[in-house]
Amino acid sequence: MRIGELAERTGTSRRLLRYYEEQGLIVSARCANGYRDYDPRFVDRVIQIRGLLDAGLPTRIIKQILPCLDKPRSIHFPDATPEMLATLERERDRMTERITCLTRNRDAIAEYLDVVRGDAPSAADAAS
Amino acid sequence: MRIGELAERTGTSRRLLRYYEEQGLIVSARCANGYRDYDPRFVDRVIQIRGLLDAGLPTRIIKQILPCLDKPRSIHFPDATPEMLATLERERDRMTERITCLTRNRDAIAEYLDVVRGDAPSAADAAS
DNA sequence: TCAAACCTTCACATTGATGTGACGGTCAAC
DNA sequence: GTTGACCGTCACATCAATGTGAAGGTTTGA
Q1: A18-49 in b/e burial notation, b at 16+ Cβ within 10 A?
Q2: Distance of C1' in D30 from CA in A29, Å
Q3: What pTM value is reported for the model?
Q4: Range list of H helices, B55-125
Q5: pLDDT tens-digit profile of A68-79?
Q6: B102-125: buried (b, 16+ CB within 10 Å) or exposed (e) per residue?
Q7: Is some CB atom of chain A closer than 8 A to the CB atom of B98?
Q8: Measured between beta carbons, which residues in chain B are less than 8 angstroms from residue A110?
Q9: C1' of C20 to CA of A119 (Å)
Q10: CA B93 to CA B61: how far, in whole Å?
Q11: pLDDT tens column, A16-46
């Protein structure tokens, strides 16, 4: 698959796909004419990258954690340095904090919408 | 409370607090000498803002949703325009997507750490 | 053979969240 | 009354994620 098709199937621009490659998030084979050639599994990969970026993770971190999320594992146990493990733990905890914050605020938005729309406020509205 | 204390208590820089004010996320009273004067409840407010920013929301959106999260409500029912409600629904759904993405990847990181550390993989590891 | 639709690299522009520093006023302590 | 730690505004710098366009090669189809 060439870059145009991957862009279309992931809803990103060609420019960004090249950027992600430059940042080491994806790699591409090259056809004889120099065109990038992508394996179909990069569709999911790119969508995952977009999701993580949208959730506030920088490419630097995404690059570090991506190889650990693959199944089957591309990074095996002995390859993991202690620094790497520490980074992963830190990021795992940061992500948990993000999830907590997002969930709290999303629920507050949802509850506000419920109230404004005059629906029965959901269970979250015990107070007030 | 002046800007220095608020900065210290929220772990942000004075620069950013002024930026948040410029973006309409917080407001400040002014002392006779022109110094900003903050109500203590801005500590939580700023922490909330930081969390949302860190989770990938831009100040533009945060500004829109913040007034709806206050209890007691500062925005009452008739104040909410249909456009506003549509924005809130859109953001609620985007936040849900973010939460899903973050949760999936965080769990994958956690599971990787479990495996690498040789712990019994947690319940999430039914497959494989 | 020409045009349209791809692709390449390079490079400059923009936007949002920040850092940093200049220049000056205020205030408290010594 | 001077020094140091605050505060104010203004402005320029930076970084990451993007947009955009130039200049050119390739492929496909009329």
Answers
A1: eebeeeebbebeeeeeeebebeeebeebbebb
A2: 32
A3: 0.90
A4: 59-69, 82-117
A5: 888 777 777 777
A6: bbebbbbbbbbbebbeeeeeeeee
A7: yes
A8: 92
A9: 51
A10: 13
A11: 999 999 999 999 999 999 999 999 999 999 9
